[in-house]
Amino acid sequence: MNAPLQALRPIQPLPDQLISQIAAGEVVERPAAVVKELLENALDAGASTIFIRLEQGGVKRIAITDDGRGIAPEQMPLALARHATSKIASLTDLEHVATLGFRGEALASIASVALLTLTTRTVEAAHAWQLDGATATAAIPSSGALGTTVDVQDLYFNTPARRKFLKSEQTEFGHCAEVVRRIALSRPDVTFSLTHNGRTVDHWGVAEIAKRSAQILGAEFAAARLHLDETAGAVRLHGFAGLPTAAKARGDAQYFYVNGRFVRDKLLTHAVRAAYQDVLHGERFPAYVLALEIDPSQVDVNVHPSKIEVRFRDSRSIHQFVFHAVSRALAQTSATAFGSAPAPQATPSAAMPWRREQQGSFAAAFAGAPVANPGGGFGRPAGVAQTLADYGALFSTEVTGGAPSLAGSMPPSRPMPSEEYPLGFALAQLHGVFILAQNAQGLVIVDMHAAHERILYEQLKDALDGDAMQVQAMLIPVTFHADAVEVGTVEEHAATLQTLGFDIAVLSPHTLAVRAVPALLRNADAQSLARDVLRDVREFGGSRVLLEQRNALLGTLACHTAVRANRNLAIPEMNALLRQMENTERADQCNHGRPTWVQLGHGDLDKLFMRGQ
Fold first, then answer.
1. Which end of the chain is least crowded, N or C, by CB within 10 Å?
2. Facing residues of 117 across strands?
């Protein structure tokens, strides 16, 4: 039964207090939102040290003190007024925002739903000044050091309905602490101290980003991360990407910043996820701390009240830049890091160098087609070894240490382990599944099927990417009903679709026809594939769907072609496999994201046998 309509009142302007409370509903969602706005103001003021004091999860009190520039006493009432700011003055300023805050409504919104006291002192002032509440018209003398303290008490005291939606004290504190962590990660040059109910919870002094990220994300992340720093024109991406083996069950260790601002942007998340897509196991989530620096005029930060979303002027280029930068970082693994000692559990050092390759075009990611063979199905492109025996011929007995028997006995002259070969040299085979090798750090255990699978998979991808995109024309075009957005996408992104190997025609305002698809995916459902690709192209400027489907096919081929378990390998064959791993990108994981090898160092072996204890 429908509720009766409320009687309409005459149109009238809203009171300023109510306007501020409505705005507070967007800006001050919970105590954590207050912490975020005040911390951003402190950083914009040039603070080098910030103290955050919380009581009862921030509901009872939020007090943030900084040592920034402070506010002149005559401007303090304006600081609490709606839409008053020192950070922008024109549309040009808005289009080139370089500060974290700029709307000029945070303090006014907070003051409308809480008891707010502002205490501040500039370097020119003889003493501090204090202003109580949003209705005060003039500041009064007070005591205080250089900088500003914003003291917010009894949040939502005048809007009890909103207060009822808050969670438990510990939950609200958890959200506040996460906001502090996000901002502290972006500014390792600033000291942050967080207390809750009088107890110090976190304190981070000025440090390098490597140390700050280790402090916040933990030692596990610090031991399993890759450093990356790439530039393309005026765009730079730098930070740390966690190794696939350190992926988590939840996506709570993903920090992305655009010009110093923490964002949750689906385009950037999609680009990073695509880079990890064939090295993650199951539904795991990678950990990363990445910062994108871009001309402020090329990104719109004014698309969401909480400023957590952004919009790029050239979203496709940004997506591809991030995707390729992270992909190249992940392509370098412990096994391929010649001259670098692999850390325990195959986790390379954060400072490990990685190869810089030419950034491929968007089409290159999907280029290539299957090589026909008389027996039907996918043939093996040129350059892909048939078996491990093919690899053995590539290495002389000087490297393998002589020709051993097939029974797995030791070669007459085994070479000494060296840093030149991170995976060392084979000792024996265990149960027809694992290769045991000795390197400079200790014992290496290799899953030979998983390792060979990754080698073949990467070779198949390289072989296909080296050819021009081949398409398969449909004998009978597949037509389907489409909405206006899909039709518009075909018309607007025709060139991109053609680059991806698609020929999609508009037959009517509500009908599309698929006339050609990439040859590699000719057996896929054309309608579903086209819809997925149109969605990706519309949202991200490209399609992860094609890459995933292509890689799934190649992964299946590699899996069935790789050396099977319980096959006895000779020592030269084992060594040949180790050398191939050292020259194969992403060799630390198989196609399904599982590790291909682990390292047991001398210390690990000593512990197993209680040596030195």
1. N
2. 132, 151
